[in-house]
Amino acid sequence: MTGTDVVDATGRSGGDPTPSGDSPRSPSGDGVDAGLLHKPSWRARISTTLEVIRANPTGRLVLKVAVGLAGLLVVAVGALLIPLPGPGWLIVLGGLGIWAIEFSWARRLLTFTRRYLRMWTHWVTRQSWTVRIAIGLFGMLFVGAVVWISVWLSFGVNLVDEALTRF
């Protein structure tokens, strides 16, 4: 391979860009090689960028620290939002996804969580409406109890007493 050879995404190089020897041309017929115009997907670009950063020992350390801190920040915000109505658990899973970029334990935990979340979702969708409604009511009671306990322990305010005195 010389310095002027072009290597495509499949690893082929030289003057034979395709196995048949025919060079793929752009649909417009302008003679431009279509393989050279194809832009890689955003995942491929991110993967390549991460590989370049990891190739340098300093870059690897900086990337690990930056991913660790970013994931910690997102997980902490999500954990604070869990007792409140909203996407607390979703934000925690997002932080876990950030950690999964660089840490294999987080990747395994995220895979485990996704698998069992899918299993739970499929199980719930196979249940009757009465079971689904019971699951929803139980979930609402659970979230209400978590909010009540969080407010009581954090601020010393018993929401049940407050509601009973006002109504």
Automatic annotation (TrEMBL):
Keywords: Membrane, Transmembrane, Transmembrane helix
Tree of life domain: Bacteria
Transmembrane segments: 61-82, 88-110, 131-155
InterPro entries attached to this UniProt entry: CHP02611 (IPR013434), Uncharacterised_PGPGW_TM (IPR019099)
UniProt feature, compositional bias: Low complexity: 15-31
Parts forming coiled coils: none
Chain positions covered by the region annotation Disordered: 1-31
Protein name: TIGR02611 family protein
Provenance organism: Phytohabitans maris
